[in-house]
């Protein structure tokens, strides 16, 4: 336990300053933190060391997980533990901005851009181009996992939440990736801490409505009220016009997503953590980009 206490003392003041040490919440977070540190002390291969520092040592991060579980210490402990194990399996703690290639941004299938009318960071998903095959699924799911946790951390830094804006324009009965939709749903439900404020589904096609009813059955009850199915007029009531991607107005355009300055092409990135053949990735991305342009 000395190991746990030592690490807990390394918490920054900013991570605990809004939590009274006399509150039930504080003692809940201490209990969760100490149990996680004990697990790591007994087996330091179970979590990535960087995740122990980033998540376990941070009351701000643990607090968001606790909010997902209504402050229940046992459920919070299990959720954080499972999330850290999953993140290690996905190599999420090891992936950085420079492992996300320029082609991923060029495609514009998933990117962070702008804020909604309440100041929440927006994660944009363009379903038309989120079509994977088994050769590249590992790599792209790891890029997506990194991006999803990045938007969580950006929202924590701003003191706000985040919004998912999913554009379904242009998908057809044969052109949508059901396994990937279910994978994203699994990640959000099982591994993401509190913070999502709104899920905006734009331009839902008629053939998808029966599927949506099935998906809604797996979504936590408290989240169902966050989901909005909208057209263009309704979208303007939720997202400032300046942050609505241009392809909403013109579905045929290629949107230029914001690109980090250290982003590199697929031919130059390190694939160590992606478990995917470089040629398969290049062929996949270039084939889809050829359809976009």
Automatic annotation (TrEMBL):
Pfam families: CRAL_TRIO. Gene3D superfamilies: CRAL-TRIO lipid binding domain. One of its GO terms (cellular component) is endomembrane system. Residues 100-245 form the CRAL-TRIO domain. InterPro entries: CRAL-TRIO_dom, CRAL-TRIO_dom_sf, CRAL/TRIO_N_dom_sf, ER-organelle_contact. It comes from the Eukaryota. PANTHER family: MOTILE SPERM DOMAIN-CONTAINING PROTEIN 2. This is Motile sperm domain-containing protein 2-like protein. It comes from Leptotrombidium deliense.
